[in-house]
Amino acid sequence: MKQRFYPVIMISLVLMIFAGCQHKSEELSIIFEKYTLGNGLDVILHQDHSDPIVAVAIQYHVGSNREKPGKTGFAHLFEHMMFQQSENVGQDEFFKKIQGAGGTLNGGTSTDGTVYYEVVPKNAAELALWLESDRMGYLINTVTRSAFANQQDVVLNEKRQMVDNNPYGHNNYVIHKNLFPDGHPYNWQVIGEMEDLFNATVEDVKAFHQEFYLPNNATLAIAGDFEPEEMKALVEKYFGEIPSGEKVEDMDPVYVTLEQTKRLYHEDNFAKTPLLTMVWPVVEQYHPDAYALDFLGQILGSGRKAPMYKVLVKEKKLTSRVSVYNYAMELAGKFTISVPGNAGTSLADAEAAVFEAFERFEQEGITETDLEKIKAGLETGFYNGISSVLGKSFQLARYSEYAGDPSFIAEDIKNIRSVTIDDVWRVYEKYIKDQPFVLTSFVPKGQLELSAADCEKAGIVEESGDQVYKVAEVTGEEEVITRTPSAFDRSVEPVPGPDPVRDAPEVWKSSLPNGMKVLGIEHDELPLVQYTIDIDGGHLLDPVDKSGVASLLATMLMEGTASKTPEELEEAIDLLGARIRVSAGLESITVNVNCLARNLEKTVELVQEILVEPRWDEIEFEIAKMKVVNNLKRNNANPNFLSWQAFNDLIHGKGSLLATSTSGTVETVTAITLDDLKAYYTNNLSPSVATLMIVGDVDQQTTTRLFSGLASAWPEKEVTIPDFNFTPENPDAKIYFVDFPGAKQSVISIGSRYTPEDHFDHYAATIANYKLGGSFNGRLNMILREEKGFTYGARSGFNLNNVYGTFNANSSVRSDATLESVQIFHDEMAGYRKGIPAEDLEFTKSALLKSNARNYETLGSLQGILRDINSYELPVDYIAQEQETLRSMTLEQHQEISRKYIDPERMFYVVVGDAATQQEPLKALGFGKPELISLD
To answer: What's the CA gap between 808 and 909, in Å, rounded?
Structure first.
């Protein structure tokens, strides 16, 4: 048994990682305790009183790399089983108990590990520890055949949704099979192979759990508002008696050497444009060379100065983007270049252009400024990564489990800061230049001529109509669950104490001399500032025949200024470690900025240039159009996009502006000229319809001073936002089918038009929907996923903007379960209108009211508050009014809202799937013959 010890480790990190000394450095102290229980469980405690919440994260050192050929996907499959039940927690109660306490939870599996987490109000911290300890030490007896069969089906559907029914979904499979030799721990995918998942047995996964899900193979990290001595006692109580297992030896790196380049192709039934991928084997995480490889990836592929961008995008126009990155895992790494070709692009030409870009890189070289930009961005990214207690717990657990010490965070930053130009050249010469690689050509079905040269068929075996993996329903008597002895009665659920009081943050309001409204919240925990400038209009001001103008304008505003080329503007932003983005939505064009507080003034100066002094570069305009057109063409291979488009056509009328994506269509974007953008800019961008929303380490006085220059340089003008006639009536229910030949799943989207009286009526509708499809425990998800195993998830919700609203229920289901799934949607909505039990309403109130403790932690959540106030003209105390609406809701009011806004007899039923097998059976629903619709 390990001796219990409680050493206190204090880390004071100088996080200034710029190469020069021209900037003020920041110092951040992260104080934590690490100790080890007698059973080998490493525990890390980090106290943070900023918000009355606690994050509990447990990192198990087991991922897909611990699996064996023929038994792949077990780590991920067992992640699903960990949410089912344990000896003292009932079926599907994990989500319900945490959500009922106002918390959130989830888990994830990678090649190297599996993590589970909860973020809860601080009074529910003991509840989270009880749940986590029960599934660590008291779960295995509850893995019954019926529970296991259900999750097999869920995971099989997850694979269909994420891999089999997606363009290029099999690309990683082909790469790993050919980059990593047979028997290598990375030779297979985390999700596993269909045959292995289908053939897995209860005995298989129990053995896997007993070997790896052990306290001596895990780190428990707890961060948040707690008292350390009290937390230590709770950790000892719940985890201390769980027995350790056999020692799990750390795996040593398994290096890969390719004797020659491997070249493979696949005709992809779901792709509309070709994809070239080139991958080189490299070193594992934390290896000294991995840091330089990270830098190499960014220098080659990120930004307008990058040689890959210059050659493939700007000069040859073969693609709209190139991704170059190093991905270092625990045992090995891979260096990837990904080129999603434009429609009709020859991947042989793309491959030749990649090597031309390498030559350009060798000619132009690397500068200190290149390294400085990357280091600046990493500094800002680090602060954003620890802006929540969950982020802190993840970081500490990961360093503890994979580097052996949570204080390795300091060494990690030192290693980043130490990368030199010589290091980058060295890894390029050692791992990339003239070295063999794996190349994949994924081309649309029937367009094999687009493949790179000398490729062999990848040999992907896909699920077909003749062989659909469907786990047989388990029948017979329910299995008896044996309880494991414990030192105390673990069946007694901890009762959370009084709910913590968390007042809403103070919102300040003002305006600038040019008419721009300003909303702000000061939040000084970290030296970060985040702000947006919302300019009303957006897609609503697009001409119908040139839909997409606002979106293209947003793109062009980032393509340089009057005094800066696109490359110079990008470099100025990168040197500040800032993120500045301009985007267009339905109702606005938005400037988004995230930066270090010390660099706020300089980002404001850059934003002023972007808004007031656009460059209007003809070459960049043509590149921007090319990107949009090719992305729109790729959307035609995405069944989820097709479902969205069909639903919007039905809601608004095909061809109307509101039915069209904010990016436009191929036809409308092709017709747009630079003069169209200039006219939109001149007529519609005005501070009179703009709002600045700023949160972070900055006060009102400083904000007013820093934005005074923009106020002077950007004069107001009158802008009129048009009114749109949105018809609130809904027709009788009818089914519409979009054919996606060979689809492994059907995408179901069911909904109607929705017109609430005001924001608070909308909030009441959101409350009413919660137990139908607004959470994991909603009826739709519990039936379609947890009971039937038809899908990876099912949800419903109300969507509202200032022009229109919709109700929508949706899911992606196994193809042969389409009819039954649509029937379940209909029947559950019909039943919901009859009212819900009192306990369901009380659960909804508890979950939503108690979650208030989590709603003010991050800059993103604070900015969301300002956005609500601005978008819907709400009072600053609107959250208190929402909570009163929630507290006072009765069963009668809940039913009234449900009957008013959820009527399955007056909805559009859209199904995107394989019409040959699924369209005709849908007639059995009684809504007439399904209408086959075409999306141009």
So the answer is: 10
